[in-house]
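Review the following:
>
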Amino acid sequence: MAENNSEVLTVKKKSEWPKLISSEDYWAIWLGAFLLVFAMILIIPNPPADMMAKIEESNTTMMAESERAPFRTIAYFKAEDAKGTLKASKVGPIKPLFGFTAKPGTWTSNPIDSFYLSEKDAAAIRDANKEKYDQAKAATAAALAAAMAAESAAEAAQFESEDLNAKAKDEIAAWRAAKTAEGKAKKKATTKAKNIIGSMIVLMIAIGLLFAIGVPFMGRNAKKFLIGFPVVFIIGVLAYILAGQAQLKALGLSYVLFALVIGLVIANTIGTPAWLKPALMTEYFIKTGLVLLGARILIGKIALIGIPGLGVTWVVTPIVLIFTYWFGQKIIKMPSKELNITVSSDMSVSGVSAAIATAAACKAKKEELTLAIGLSMVFVAVMIFVLPAIANSVGMHHVLAGAWLGGTVDNTGSVVAAGELIGPVAMYTAATIKMIQNILIGVIAFGVAAYWALTIERERSGTAGQVDLSVGGALAEIWNRFPKFILGFLGASVVFSLIYSGMGHDWGKVMIDGGILSWANKFRGWFFCLAFVSIGLSTDFRELAVHFKGGKPVILYVVGQSFNLLLTLFVAWLMFFVVFPDITARILE
């Protein structure tokens, strides 16, 4: 038996090598790695001028102020702001390249304003907002004066008066809020003419050629891909334009939703033309984006939340996933196990990213993945407003609210948007919790691949003889099902976590957050947008209707998410306020 196992594994290992240049998963890794390495080559040798000296000066001031007063002083915040202005994306050879990754911006009544604004129109906007900006500057100056007076009073009492200290903290907070409002007013009052049509054309060509490199190695026609790609890109641009409309943006309707909807409308009305279909490489686009997402999962940042964050995510998430899958199979008896686990993973882990990985691991149908993602988007659009409203109405502690949002809202962008409706502490906590949860994407994908290989497929085979029951056969089947792009996702996380921790937080904040990841995030957004356009254009409502029979997917999502909301809230309270209250206090500092 041992010899048979060895032979099976040897064959699988040999057959894997050609896939390094012929598999979509591996090409996603190569392209993601290329973009990250390219950014590193341009950014790391070109830090902002006197970066370390400015960081040291700010840190010295911040440390001295922390020792001087029991609260963050005006000088502390000014030093922190000075450090925050340092961004690697603003200097060196990478700076002009950022201009070519621009996407359409915000607009109110004229969609053309999102990508083109004449000098005349820009001047009109500046004139219309000049008075508001002047008022905002005056308000900031007044708030600063009040904060300085309150801080001086607290200092005169040697910071021993709780009332004076509290007043100083409140006045400083008011100054910070006024400063933020001034920044927003300044942005409008300094509006510049823009024309990103040329840069978007260059970006379209660059992205098209980037993905076309791997197309022939995967046995597809690169010429046909390049013929259809501009249409996919243009629809993506339209999705960004719609998402930039001020009122729609305020509702939290993201570009991925519009990309999906536009594609669905075209596919189910006039139909997707045959010549366009070779460009609809959904998984190729989104898997590459997910490799780039991995670089954002920095272990050092996750450690700041600590064990409570792990409890909220690594304990709750598997429980919710298993419960939802069980509920779908045993209670409402969903006919498709693949749809069941994909919806469960989408809802319990981290939305689209988890759904893609899980669908690949269990080999779900494309329409099943589309249905899972569509359900997620509809409910997320509601949750990002309802959950913060509930938290605010009951006076929920901001750390608890953030942990609740981070563990339940389905994607990172929506988590941040929901957290902002509560406050900066909630937003920080929510984003970090979601980051911790994202690590589980790879773990869940492996678990689903193993379960499908060892259990589901064996049950379906009818007899054990139709399935290789050897250890080697089982491992080979798990490896075959495991989505290989997850290796790139995890690899990017490990590499950038090591760089970040090795070079220090301040260096990482400027060079990685403000440079490399900023670059990667631009491309990740475009790749996700192209993927959702492709999903829409590839989806037939008649195929989706079969899976909606009896409303079972909706029931599954509602029941699973309700369970998720209750369990996450309880565990977050338990971890942050009963077991580890000291960590909660540290977050609030």
